[in-house]
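Data availability (excerpt). The following record was deposited with the supplementary files.
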Amino acid sequence: MIDPYKAGLFSRNPYAKKRPCHGELVVVLDGKMENRKLQLITPISRALCTGEIHELIVTDEEQAGPGQEVNRIAYWGFFEVTSGTVVVAGDEVRIGNSVLGTIAGFDETHMPNHLNIVIKAAERKTGVELGLALEEKIIITKKEEE
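Predicted structure:
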């Protein structure tokens, strides 16, 4: 069996339309690491099902993306999916009314317990530094074409 992402069969993102992923923060984290060695998987997407809980991790590494290693990270927290969908690298992550970053990729270190969703942002701040609150709404949505 061939993985179409590893084989380079897609020349562009095939996800033309998809509904947003909605969720709520269930844990706010306060930690940073300089040498985390997260291994982002090659596939650009993951299905997130209603009721699952996944971790949100942020990096300021510009090259972060599918198939890459990510080291400089900060932890935002864990969220429960309240409306499932497929999440794709490049999707925007909104908490409250603000876009805080875009999906860089996914790390499966802790699967099947939870997926690490790695977000690329200009600033590497923890959930506490961002002032995140329990039950705060999260929306992950396809970035509007420019």
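Summary of structural features: The chain has a mean pLDDT of 92.
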